[in-house]
Amino acid sequence: MKKTFSPIKTKHLYEKVEELILEFIHQGKLQSGDRLPPERSLAETFGVSRNSVREAIRALTEKKVLESRRGDGTYIRTPDDSALVTTLAQTIRIQQNRLNDIFEFREMIEPQIAALAARHITKDEVAALKILVFEQERKIVAGEDIADLDMQFHLRLAEASRNVVLLEVVKLLNGILLESRSEFLQSETRQLISVKSHIEIIDALEKHDEKTACKNMLTHLQRVKKTIYQDS
Predict the structure, then answer these.
(1) What is the distance, to the nearest Å, from the Cα of residue 101 to the centroid of all Cα atoms in its chain?
(2) pLDDT over 70 for what percent of the chain?
C-alpha cells in the first residue's frame, strides 16, 4: 500500500476508490482480517480527498466487505458469507466490461493515428520515439513502471499525425485511456510485448509505410488485450 497512484480523475471519486480497495483484496494485498490503512494514508495513496475515501469505506461497509470496529479502525471482513465474493465478482465483471470498451475504442482510433503519423513523421520525431522505447527497456530491467512512457509514446504518435482534432481527443481522453495502462495490468509479459510492438511500429514509421504502421498498431493493441485477459 506504499505506492502512490496518479490522482484519480472521475466524477464519482469514491466509486473508483471502492474499485481500487476491492482490487487490492482480489490480488491478496489486503486479506480477510487485515486492518485497513488510515483514511489519510489511503487518500495519499489514491490521490483523492479523505472524504472520498470515507464515502468508499462507508459503501463497502454497507456491502459487508468491510467491518468498522469502534475505536479500533476498519477491517476486511472474514468471508463468513457470500457478500465479499459477490461484490468482488460484480466489480471484476464491471472492470472487464469497461476495459473491453476502452480497447475497442483504441482499436478504432489508434491504428489510424499511426497511419497518419507514418505519413507526416520527421526524423527527429522518430529518434524521440526510439529514445522512449530505450527508456522503457531500461525501466523494465530495473523493475519500474512504464505506464507513463507508454502514454508518452502514443501521445507523440498523435502529435506526429498532424491532426489537431485527433491530438485533442487523445489528450482529453487520457484519463480514461490510462485505465488500460493501470499498474494492476502491467505484467512483465505485457511490458515486453509492448516494447516489441513499439519497435515494430517505429520501423513502419521510419519507412513512412502507412499501411504497415496501421496494421502494427492494431496488432499491438490486440496482443496487449490478449495478455491482460490471460493474466486476469
Answers:
(1) 13
(2) 81
User: What amino acid is encoded at 65 in this protein?
Assistant: V
Task: Using alpha carbons only, give the angle 152, 119, 161 rounded to the nearest 5 degrees.
Answer: 35
The pLDDT value given to residue 85: 56
> What is the per-residue pLDDT for 160?
97
pLDDT on residue 184: 44
CATH tag, 98-231: 1.20.120.530
Q: What is the mean pLDDT of the chain?
A: 83
6/105 Cα distance (integer angstroms): 22
CATH 1.10.10.10 domain extents, the chain: 13-81
- The sign one gets for the Cα dihedral 57, 63, 69, 71 is positive
The CATH code for residues 13-81 is 1.10.10.10
DSSP 8-state code for residue 108: H
